[in-house]
UniProtKB/TrEMBL annotation:
It holds the Pfam family Cu_amine_oxidN1. InterPro entries: Cu_amine_oxidase-like_N, Mao_N_sf. Residues 1-25 form the signal peptide. It comes from the Bacteria. Keywords: Signal. Gene3D superfamilies: Copper amine oxidase-like, N-terminal domain. SUPFAM superfamilies: Copper amine oxidase, domain N (SSF55383). This is Copper amine oxidase-like N-terminal domain-containing protein. It comes from Paenibacillus elgii. Residues 415-517 form the Copper amine oxidase-like N-terminal domain.
Length: 531
């Protein structure tokens, strides 16, 4: 078995070079290969989103390093194309890379036009982005037809909308909104990566066992990778703000985004070890973050004494974090390994800032690139140790559970596997059609539910599937394909979305049974337990 140190080094190399390898290299199983594909796509698309936001800001500000920011964004595009090449061959990569690169350039052109105050050029760039959304969706639909063209186009458009929201807010000096949209863009990019990776794995069952993406261990690894990766680049951005002489409002909101990430990371740790442990972790992690920003401020003001103090201060939270995991996981935790990983990663971040302060921008962005890449093996190390500690909670195989939801027409409560939940609206019989409250029922059955006010649409996600239910429509869209049953529309009642039970069953595959005489309703589904 490969030692953890060897795994850490190999994974770091895989992420930086993006060669087609897994944690166990070529000897790994198809399940491990699928989990690695998910991690790789998450890292690449998440990195793209954050780098694009930053490069657009740099272009708008006319920063001295805006070209190097664009170069790093371009390298991300090359690595994404390399991943497609390793899965689909040269032809797919040749089609994708110029299309994606043109899309990225259109984002930068939008920022350039805004900086110059050229509204016509800005509108042209926006129109170009809309066209690229359609072309990219078509590319992915041809590559992954089972995902559905409509859903893919909706996803590409949503990505662009978030990128422009983040930039427009920045240009308007609404920094809170800018960094909020940046975080949303990152989360959306990673969720999209999960969907694409699942589609890619399903097409190559000889290479990928898609079930490897759906285990609680894989979910833990992906969640930690997403949060640690976001920390690395957001910290790099916030540090750069000091060097660039950004306004206090800009710097403070970038730092706020970094702190929000810390809250989310602490919540993930608390979900494993409990609230008290989560609080302890948060204290140490935010100390690390604070000293990183102190280092940046000292470097910007050329205060060598303060920079030395900040560098020394970083040693304490690094040691506290390593000790935290050693105490939380005494049997499987590797304190020296984790401390080395943390110190190596923070070293890349501070060296990136040092190079930037000296105007050595190419070297600065190389260090930033490495600092981000190193977070994935750190996430893998932590996830492996936690799953070794709690193999029943984080198995390396999908765990399924059957859920039975029962309701009754006119009664404001449901039961799920015997547990009663109160509802604020009851199932109803309207013109011979049984309607049920969509959100509470779907959540009880194990789906994730979101509401899109702009289109009055409820969206469900479960087991790698996605469905949308627009109010007023008698159809649902499932994984990009239209579904209908009976012609009755989804409606709004007392502020709640009500859906015909037939269309819910048709869209989700959940088994629906209606009592003939007592108005009872029974839904049965098997769901995968996820982290």
């Amino acid at each position: 078995m490969m030692r953890l140190k060897g795994k850490l080094a190999l994974l770091g190399l895989c992420l930086v070079l993006l060669i087609p390898c897994t944690a166990g290299a070529q000897a790994g199983s198809a399940r491990e290969a699928a989990a690695e594909l998910r991690v790789r796509m998450d890292a690449l698309l998440g990195e793209h989103a954050l780098l694009a936001v930053f490069a657009m800001q740099k272009r708008y500000d006319g920063a001295a390093d805006h070209e190097q920011a664009a170069v790093l964004l371009g390298k991300n595009s090359e690595r994404l194309a390399a991943t497609l090449r390793s899965t689909y061959g040269e032809e797919a990569a040749k089609t994708f890379e110029p299309l994606w690169s043109s899309y990225v350039e259109a984002l930068l052109n939008y920022a350039q036009a805004a900086a110059a105050g050229e509204e016509t050029a800005r509108t042209q760039a926006a129109n170009g982005l809309e066209a690229y959304d359609k072309e990219l969706a078509l590319f992915w639909a041809r590559l992954l037809p089972d995902l559905g063209a409509a859903g893919l186009e909706e996803g590409t458009k949503r990505h662009t909308d978030l990128m422009l929201q983040a930039f427009d807010a920045y240009a308007d000096k609404n920094y809170a909104a800018a960094y909020k949209a940046m975080r949303e863009a990152y989360a959306h990019a990673v969720a999209s990566a999960d969907l694409l990776a699942a589609g890619m794995a399903a097409q190559s069952p000889d290479r990928f066992d898609a079930s490897g993406m759906k285990t609680r261990k894989a979910d833990l690894r992906a969640a930690l990778g997403r949060l640690l990766g976001e920390h690395a680049l957001t910290a790099a951005f916030a540090m750069q703000k000091s060097i660039d002489g950004a306004s206090d409002f800009d710097f403070d909101q970038a730092a706020a985004a970094l702190n929000e990430n810390a809250v989310d990371l602490a919540a993930a740790i608390a979900s494993v070890y409990g609230e008290t442990a989560g609080t302890s972790f948060h204290t140490a992690w935010t100390s690390r973050t604070r000293y990183i920003l102190d280092y940046a401020k000292a470097a910007a003001s050329i205060d060598e004494s303060a920079r030395t103090i900040a560098a020394g201060n970083l040693e304490k939270p690094q040691a506290e974090l390593a000790q935290f995991f050693a105490d939380a996981n005494p049997q499987h935790g590797s304190k020296p390994e984790l401390l080395n990983g943390l110190n190596t990663q923070i070293g890349q971040m501070t060296m990136a800032l040092d190079h930037s302060a000296l105007g050595e921008y190419a070297a600065a962005y190389e260090r930033t690139e490495t600092a981000y890449a190193q977070m994935s093996p750190l996430a893998d190390l932590l996830a492996q140790e936690i799953s070794d500690q709690y193999p029943d909670r984080f198995p390396d195989a999908p765990a399924s559970v059957q859920k039975t939801v029962t309701m009754q027409i006119g009664v404001k409560e449901l039961t799920v596997n015997g547990q009663t939940i109160r509802m604020d609206v009851s199932p109803a019989l309207r013109e011979g059609v049984v309607y049920i409250p969509l959100r509470v029922v779907a959540e009880a059955a194990g789906a994730t539910v979101t509401w899109e006010a702009a289109t009055s649409t409820t969206r469900l996600a479960w087991g790698g599937n996605q469905a949308s239910f627009p109010v007023g429509s008698d159809q649902a869209e499932v994984n990009g394909r239209k579904k209908s049953a009976g012609g009755a529309p989804t409606v709004m009642q007392d502020g709640r979305v009500m859906v015909p039970i037939d269309i819910l069953g048709e869209a989700t595959g959940w088994k629906a049974e209606l009592g003939k005489d007592d108005g009872s309703i029974r839904l049965t589904t098997t769901v995968e337990e996820r982290f």
